[in-house]
Fold these 3 entries.
Entry 1:
Amino acid sequence: MNNKKSAIFTSLVLLLSVLAFSIVYSRVHATDPVCIPVTPLDMKFGVAPTAAVVVLATTTVTGTVNAAGCDIGVYISMLAPGTTVTATVTDANQVGVFNDGATSVSVTGSTVSCTGNHGGINTGPCSNFSPNGVQTGIDVYFSCSGAGTISSNTIDKYQKGGITVRDLDSVTVTGNTVTGLGLVNFIAQNGIEFGFGSCGPTVSTSNVGQVTGNTVTDNQYNGNGGRAPPPYISSGILAQAIGDPGPGQIQSALVTTNRAFQNQGNVIVIVIVSP
């Protein structure tokens, strides 16, 4: 009888392991994904968005993730520190790779594309990408408590933003190639954005050195009819600074250690001063 109970227990453990494994991997190579609901800590993309790949424990995500029909391509829970994403992620409706509070996450050597609005039937990667003016569609997003490295990725064909990092203190962004849609009249894109979240200003002279070697191009907006100065502007690198000792040194560091060109504003640093 004890042996029978032991066998049943072992079978249950194995079944749970298989289920957990499938949650992480079942959609990595899918061409017609099943979208799994998640409950994120950071609700920028809604209270119950869906994801093609849900990471609930430390793992490595590789291969091709077709997120057609899902809000998120790869969702990384805070329960999955040390996760690595080295994959091709396409066609999410809101965000390609979403680190929702996990630490030591590495998004490296990945290609993330075609994040935003889609119309019609998806017959292959980016086949029905149809960006519009809705302020979402970000290829890689790290929440306020997300930490790790975003490096050596190809980031393009995003609706609103290429890379968004809410808190730079624990994140390194290096060696990425970020390419916008070029001149458009429906949305002001940002190639790489720091701050502007609930955690407030984030870039300072002490952490700006964590942003190096990125090439950011083709973020341009003419929806204001070409008037100058425009009420809205696209940027290559947009940083919300803490203001110590001011935006000048931070902007200089970002300009000299990254390549931002052919953007409406190549490097923009904003300091919000309290009244």
Entry 2:
Amino acid sequence: MNKFKTTQKSDELKIVCMKWGKLFSSEDVNKLYRGIVHHTSIKYKFYCITEDAEGLDKGIMPLPLKPHKILDKLSVNRGPWKKLLMFSKDLYGLKGRLLFLDIDVVITGDIKDLLEGTDRDKFYVRKDFVRGDINKDSNKKPRLGDVGNTSTYLMPIGKYHSILEKFEENYESILKKYTTAEQEYVIDSIFEKGDLRWLDFDKIVSFKSHCKPRFPFNLLLPPREISSSIIVVFHGYPKSWWIYEDKNSIKLQRFKDFLGRYMRNPRWYKVYKLLYKFSYYPRWLKKVYAIVKD
């Protein structure tokens, strides 16, 4: 832990992701890191909080995932509540400003542009995605009940430690109130402090909501590139790593468990499989991934 205290610089952005369990591999983290390396022009250090650092690229600084008596007991189906560890009072001795990224986001532009016009002492997050919101005013004041997408956020390290502490004291009532994921709890807590700000809507976009055409046009037209984007978020389905696979050999079995909850009749699954065969990834996104593949 001490080496992180001695090597970091206060003006360096700390970019942090978390990896636990089997959903993501070290190679997935490497792809995120390589995207940052390729696109980012400012000083930064890249950290991965994980229980297994084997296979991470040399430039990634691993931090050990600490056990937590409450968060460790929560089922994955409750959502990624372990991300609340980012609000620890002492985050491995790190100081300054932090950019948190989910592992499955895709970097398409310079992180420097994401920081432009932001206040170092406030919490910035992308408002939850709504189709057609890209050109709307992201400077609009947040309101009570607004939800942010915590796949990407900026904050001063250690300032909001009360979020984790409050959860530890009242986790049963909090889990009862916030049934879907941790982001609703986090955003409401930041809003109460008056520090909630939105990141530019046109810089962080959703592949599903903004890039892919609506059904049935998505069966004929490829997802569009949004030139202003810095980060493309893959929430729900499809998954970002499917880009690596040829459009005619996409492993649709990954959908099997998900679809099985809603489509018990196997004939419906066959219909969905046939339709998805015509939904493919565009060249612009494959070029982005070609940068980070090796």
Entry 3:
Amino acid sequence: MRSKLIPVALAAALVGWAPVLRAQALPVAVTVPAEGALAAFRAALRAELPAAEAASPEQAAALLDAARAALDQAGEKVTREQIILVVDRNPAVQRLALVLAGPETEWEVLALEKVSTGQAGRRGYFITPVGVFPHSTAIRDYRAEGTYNENGIRGLGAKGSRVWDFGWNQAQPGWLPASEPPREMRLLLHATDPDQLEQRLGRPASQGCIRISAALNRFLDRRGVLDVDHEASLLTGDQRHRAVLHPEREPTALAGRLLVVLDSADAK
């Protein structure tokens, strides 16, 4: 029978993560070290994301340098080994990288997946903002209802797909000149219609959110890649986010909370 308690590997990673946790006994016996977490994560990547791409050495080096610079500029310190999601919104790239990062770890691009970010030139469509966006427990995620819009499209993907909500952010209206001031848009990370739109991933097409494949949506959801704060909140007795977490999740001990959006075209 699958345990409803937080998996041992992640619980071990959460020890000392927040002051409140240090004074509280964990609800599981921490007896298994987390050294094998990276090997397990790599195996899950191979099994669950067979279409993932590998970054070339040059591509990886440039992306990691840009990600470090963005984190430094935002004042975000990587204090433990974790996975960070890095999205390159460059229209010629349109990729999400799963990056292994840590204070004493050699940073590595583990895999690349196609995405779609904001499309220019269409009214109501924003250019996906760049920056560092923490996945916070202050905002509740939700799941797609799988309903069809007037064009027969399931905009958030199939029913039950996870929607990660990064709140209101300033973004450039893609239908206006660049000289116009930014406006607020809700930044989401979500799946797209698996039958009609998923094959278009890899080029700008969204209204400003970050569209991902159904496979990547399931992987991030079940592996809790962005959910370290959400799992930690459960340890403190906060049950507000339990309903949105996957009931059969197997969170990685490398779970993090950071989404970085950059534009490699700006470096050219």
